[in-house]
Design a protein that fits this description.
- This protein is an alpha/beta fold.
- It is built from 12 helices and 12 strands.
- The N and C termini lie far apart (about 50 Å).
- The protein binds nicotinamide-adenine-dinucleotide and thymidine-5'-diphosphate.
- Nicotinamide-adenine-dinucleotide binds next to helix 1, strand 2, helix 4, strand 5 and strand 7.
- Thymidine-5'-diphosphate binds next to helix 6 and strand 8.
């Protein structure tokens, strides 16, 4: 039995991972630590109530005593670190929590994992650490790190620390860098769910700048399958890019969502651009494809339909969210735009 500390497993990607992997594998025992920030939601884990191989712990990865206690109590031998402050716009409003969780929290996990001699430490990172592309080219694992936002710089800091623990101590670490995800349980501060929910409520759809910034979209289940392949078979000290070669300008996504929901494009509102807005992300995932045999299984057409339908059928889930802290965030972020 692998005894795995999964961090941030009540957030979007982490909860999809835990839900998926406990169904797939009967040799994984998961201790899921999550601080339940605004982005963490126990409803994302409701299908695991009383699951014999899942323990949820509300806690902070930057709490050294707690992390140490969990390693001891559950004899943990693997770590998958999803926990992070993850939203660029929030990092522009204030960056302290980003560095506290993403850098200091990762440091505490790494130090404790080293003390307990874990067999694998998987760092979940992002393509945003590479910075921004022009019209041409793709991010490879060899692209120099050049993060532009407080969020991406905190992730790059963590990535470099993870790599240093391999070089210095020979720790069995591995890092994944994925492009933009979408799918069920994504917090509606991110582009796709925000646009779906605004359209459903006939609210304006705030498109930053000229709407021509490009992101490379991947369905969350494809990301999670790649994560598990890297977790099981990735080479220590290596980085693996993950992406589904699905580049789209933001405005096209927004228009597609409106058409799927039979809403008018007059809801689109071009607003003041994000500060330091990265123009284009695009991933070269040939390394994970050729070395580990991964490839994406979901087409964008199919998975975006599934995602829109998920939000349509899970109104209770998102109504709970938008009635809380989200309102004051939304007002702060979009009120003056
Ligand atoms: P999310 O914001 O939905 O979830 C993050 C989770 O971490 C939340 O449940 C939150 O409560 C928890 N958390 C935050 N601070 C914590 C702390 N100090 N201690 C314990 N738990 C804490 O984020 P996500 O979109 O699911 O992203 C997960 C990971 O994947 C992040 O590391 C992110 O950088 C990375 N990533 C995300 C994307 C994307 O498109 N969303 C793409 C590539 C990589
Ligand atoms: P986002 O989902 O925040 O992901 P990231 O910035 O990490 O790539 O944003 C995706 C793209 O959508 C990005 O170019 C910014 C843009 N965007 C808008 O135009 N309007 C919005 O309200 C949001 C949240 C994002």
């Amino acid at each position: 039995m692998k005894k795995i500390l999964v961090t941030g497993g009540a957030g979007f990607i982490g909860s999809n991972y835990v839900n998926h992997i406990l169904n797939e594998r009967d040799d994984y025992y998961i201790v899921n630590i999550d601080k339940l920030t605004y982005a963490g939601n126990l409803e994302n884990l409701s299908s695991l109530a009383n699951h014999p191989r899942h323990v949820f712990v509300r806690g902070d990865i930057a709490n050294r005593e707690l992390v140490n206690y969990l390693f001891e109590k559950y004899e943990l031998d693997h770590v998958i670190n999803f926990a992070a402050e993850s939203h660029v716009d929030r990092s522009i409003i204030g960056s302290y929590e980003f560095f506290r969780t993403n850098v200091l929290g990762t440091n505490i996990l790494l130090e404790t994992a080293r003390k307990f001699k874990v067999k694998k430490f998987l760092q979940i990172s992002t393509d945003e650490v590479y910075g921004s592309l022009g019209k041409e080219g793709l991010f490879t694992e060899g692209t120099p790190l050049s993060p532009n936002s407080p969020y991406s710089s905190s992730k790059a800091g963590a990535d470099m620390m993870v790599s240093s623990f391999y070089h210095t101590y020979g720790m069995p670490v591995v890092t994944t860098r994925c492009s933009n995800n979408y799918g069920p349980f994504q917090f509606p501060e991110k582009l796709i769910p925000l646009m779906i929910l605004n359209a459903l409520s006939n609210k304006e759809l705030p498109v930053y700048g000229d709407g021509m910034n490009v992101r490379d979209w991947i369905y969350v289940i494809d990301h999670n399958k790649a994560i598990n392949l890297v977790f099981e078979q990735g080479k220590d000290g290596e980085v693996y890019n993950i992406g589904a070669s699905n580049e789209l300008p933001n405005i096209e996504i927004v228009k597609l969502i409106l058409s799927k929901l039979n809403k008018s494009e007059s809801l689109i509102k071009y607003v003041q651009d994000r500060l330091g807005h990265d123009r284009r992300y695009a991933i070269d995932s040939s390394k994970i494809q050729s070395e580990l045999g991964w490839k994406p299984e979901f087409t964008f057409e199919k998975a975006i339909d599934y995602t829109v339908n998920w939000y349509l059928s899970n109104e209770k889930w998102w109504k709970n969210i938008i009635s809380g802290e989200y309102q004051s965030y939304y007002e702060k972020q979009y009120g003056k735009k």
